[in-house]
Structures are given as structure tokens and as C-alpha cells.
Design goal:
This protein is of the alpha+beta class. The protein has two domains: 357 residues, no CATH class; 63 residues, Dna Ligase, domain 1. The protein contains 13 helices and 24 strands. Strand 8 and strand 9 form a beta hairpin. Helix 2 packs across helix 6.
Length: 437
């Protein structure tokens, strides 16, 4: 067998107890392999044994659209820390840029010596009622999930007696190419910088470092030597993949420890960094509303994949409309992550809607609202029965400044509770293997 059974085949060939056993076997494999989310005090990463299958032609269209999107976001970040032509030419309102908490004004006038500002992207993809795949969010600071996608695909394939889907193994080679591209003439270690076991995605850090042949290091393992960064034994560090919880230059008015380590060598052109500091401006949820216009502006192309309709609440007319229609919309804090603070209007209580209206009216610049996209569903084993549960997809994209790699597949995230539309692992979500045929 080259692919797992379809949900229909599974329902016909197995009973509830056998399907329950498939779930237990998949998750035992993940537990035995140390696949966890949330650090040492976190929880086992949970998976469903019924994979999601995507059509190959549809995948090709999506991957082309995401390649276009990461090039656009990279150009935008370069522009933000350069001439800000997008503001001058009216593509992005200045107030939107000035209000983003991810803007690092200290970086104005600087740029990587080579490679890309945005080397790694993880895009949250949903399917609307018309069957279109849309980008729900752009994640270009420290997007996680690719190693979890690998682990889930391997476990599901093993339980079903098939080969894992091909494609995701491209991710580690592409990551290494991105690191090399940021400092093409440098010598020394390529490192993945982690907080250590307390980081929620530490399993991923370990696996990516091993498979991409990177040194797994914490800030305590690194030293300054002049304007260079070295290991404790003096070995030079050529490039760093940042995967720490600290992703800004400043905290509480002072430089962060990670910035103190990396920024001076990066400015001096002695160190490559993936993803660079300051890339958060490109995944700010208020900036997201303008990405399709940015595709046209920077690439002179029509967007190949669309965004979910998003409304700028600093426009008074839009704000009043959103307040009137909040029960039909989704409200998100512009700097939120992991589903925190999200209000889904159709499922919110009257008190929750009233509280959200107060927050939006008080600080409209801190929020966005979007049309509700009722996430598509996939058959999922729940207590031995196949039931529909909401899903999204996180594919991963790698850009070395010249070429884009979109490994086939990605992480399908599934809401394990009936009716729930928040799929994040931090909010009790699970995962499915993703096959492309």
C-alpha cells in the first residue's frame, strides 16, 4: 500500500475499537519519539490517524502563490527598513506601519549582507465555502510546525504500513541553504539558537538541528569576539537560525539578551541571521490587510492566492460597521498569536460581544476584524467514530534571496472538539498527516 486508506475505506473495514487502537498506536509512537509541544511542562503532540489528502494540481497552484507571497513580504521588510516607498506611494498607510509593535526603528538604514530578510515563512491556509484556499495569517518571525508535520506523517504512515509522503524532507536542506545564503563568504558554524527545553517547540529545534546538520545552541553557548560571534571554544559562527522566545531588539526599555549577542555581528556583516530581526512587521495582522496590494506593487503581478477580507478599524466608517456586525465577524488583536484573544462573533456570548465592542472602540488600532471563514472539515476519529472536525493547513516556505522552496505538504492542524474553530496546539488542537496526490 502506497497511501493510507480513505475515511470511507477505513469506516468500512474497521470497527470502533480498531479505529481507537489506530489512534492509540499513532500517539504512542509520537510519545516514544519525544514529540511534545510546550516545553518540559507541556503536553504530548496529538495526532489523528486519518490523513488529509490534497489534489496535486491544487497544491501546485497554492505553492506558486506562497512563493509569490514570501517574495512580496521580503521586499516589504526591506522597504520598511529602507526608503519606505510603500508608504510614500500610498500602498500602506503610515499610521498602520507606525502602530505595529514589531517595527524596529533601530534597523532603519540597515540590511542583510546577503540572502533574505524573510527566509522562512509558515502560512495559515483555510478553505472557504466556495472551495478556495485562502491565506488566513502570515507567520514570518519564528513559524513552527515543520518537524511536527514530519513526525506525524511518519507515525501515521507506519501505523498504516505505508511510506511517508515525499516532500517534507526538502525542508531541512532548504533551511540550510537559507542559512548559508545569509553569509556566503563566511566560515564557521551554522547554528540553531534555542531557549532550550523550556521552549514550546524544543522538539522541533532538536530535530531540525540534527537533520540540517546545525549546531543546537543556547545564548549561554555563544560569545562575542570583537565584531564576530563565536562558540565558547572560539569557533566562529557563520549564521544563526533564531528560534528563541525573544524576537525583538528591546524589552522594558533595554536590549534583549539575544539582540545583544547577534545584532552587532549582523550589522558588521560577520553573521547571517534567519529570520532577521524586524521581520515581525510583515506578519502584523493589520499589515496583512494590504499584502495583496503589495504583491501588485513590489512584483507587478496579480496575487495567486488571496487573503481573507480584513477591515481597518482606524477608518471610522469601518469601525462603526464592524461594531454593528461584530456577531458576524472575527476580531483579533493585531499582535496576537496561538489564537489568544480571538473572538469568533457567531459563537460569542452577548457579554463577550459587549466586552469586545468596548475594546475595539477604545483602541481600534490594536485590532483587526475579518469575515468569518468557516474552516473546512475533515473526517477525524473521535471515540472510535469518524466525525468531521475543523482543520487548517500550515505549509512552509523557504527563500534564500534567489530561489524559493515550498516542501510538498505541511501540517494540517485539527480542532479536536466538536464545533471548535481554533486549531492551535496551544489551544488543545491536534494534527493530521498531509498527503498530496
Amino acid at each position: 500500500m502506497t497511501t493510507p486508506p480513505t475515511p470511507e475505506q477505513l469506516e468500512h473495514a474497521t470497527d470502533a475499537s480498531e479505529r481507537d487502537e489506530l489512534t492509540r498506536r499513532v500517539n504512542r509512537l509520537l510519545a516514544d519519539r519525544g514529540v511534545r509541544f510546550g516545553g518540559e511542562d507541556g503536553h504530548q503532540f496529538r495526532a489523528d490517524p486519518v490523513p488529509r489528502v490534497l489534489d496535486g494540481d491544487e497544491w501546485q497552484r497554492l505553492s506558486e502563490g506562497l512563493a509569490q507571497r514570501i517574495r512580496t513580504l521580503d521586499a516589504f521588510v526591506a522597504d520598511v527598513y529602507g526608503d519606505r516607498a510603500c508608504v510614500r506611494d500610498g500602498v500602506l498607510p503610515e499610521r498602520v506601519l507606525n502602530a505595529t509593535p514589531y517595527l524596529e526603528d533601530d534597523l532603519r538604514g540597515t540590511a542583510p549582507v546577503a540572502g533574505a530578510w524573510v527566509s522562512v515563512g509558515g502560512f495559515d491556509i483555510v478553505r472557504d465555502d466556495d472551495g478556495r484556499l485562502l491565506v488566513l495569517e502570515d507567520n514570518v518571525r519564528t513559524p513552527s510546525g515543520v518537524a511536527y508535520a514530519m513526525a506525524v506523517s511518519e507515525a501515521v504512515a507506519e501505523v498504516h504500513g505505508t511510506e511517508p509522503p515525499a516532500g517534507l524532507e526538502e525542508a531541512t536542506a532548504a533551511l540550510r541553504r537559507c542559512l548559508e545564503a545569509t553569509n556566503p563568504h563566511g566560515e564557521g558554524v551554522l547554528a540553531l539558537l534555542t531557549d532550550g527545553p523550556d521552549n514550546s517547540a524544543y522538539y522541533e529545534h532538536r530535530r531540525l538541528a540534527e537533520e540540517a546538520a546545525l549546531s543546537l545552541v543556547t545564548p549561554a553557548d555563544l560569545r562575542h569576539q570583537g565584531d564576530a560571534l563565536t562558540m565558547a571554544d572560539g569557533t566562529p559562527v557563520r549564521a544563526v537560525y533564531r528560534r528563541t522566545g525573544q524576537d525583538s531588539l528591546h524589552a522594558d526599555g533595554r536590549g534583549t539578551h539575544v539582540a545583544d549577542l547577534l545584532l552587532a555581528p549582523w550589522r558588521a556583516g560577520r553573521l547571517g541571521v534567519v529570520n532577521c530581526f524586524g521581520t515581525g512587521v510583515a506578519d502584523d495582522k493589520s499589515v496583512y490587510a494590504y499584502v495583496e496590494d503589495m504583491v501588485r506593487y513590489y512584483l507587478d503581478e496579480e496575487p495567486l492566492v488571496s487573503s481573507v477580507a480584513t477591515y481597518d478599524l482606524c477608518d471610522q466608517r469601518r469601525l462603526e460597521e464592524a461594531l454593528d456586525r461584530l456577531a458576524e465577524l472575527v476580531a483579533k488583536p493585531r499582535d496576537g498569536a496561538g489564537g489568544a484573544g480571538v473572538l469568533i462573533g457567531p459563537s460569542a456570548s452577548a457579554d463577550e460581544l459587549a466586552s469586545a465592542r468596548e475594546a475595539l472602540r477604545a483602541e481600534p488600532e490594536r485590532w483587526i476584524v475579518q469575515d468569518v471563514v468557516a474552516l473546512s472539515t475533515q473526517p477525524t476519529i473521535v471515540d472510535g467514530e469518524l466525525e468531521d472536525r475543523h482543520v487548517d493547513l500550515r505549509p512552509f516556505v523557504y527563500y534564500d534571496g534567489e530561489d524559493v522552496t515550498v516542501p510538498v505538504g505541511g501540517l494540517t492542524r485539527v480542532a479536536l472538539h466538536e464545533g471548535d474553530m481554533v486549531v492551535n496546539s496551544s489551544r488543545d488542537g491536534g494534527a493530521k498527516a498531509t498527503w498530496v496526490e
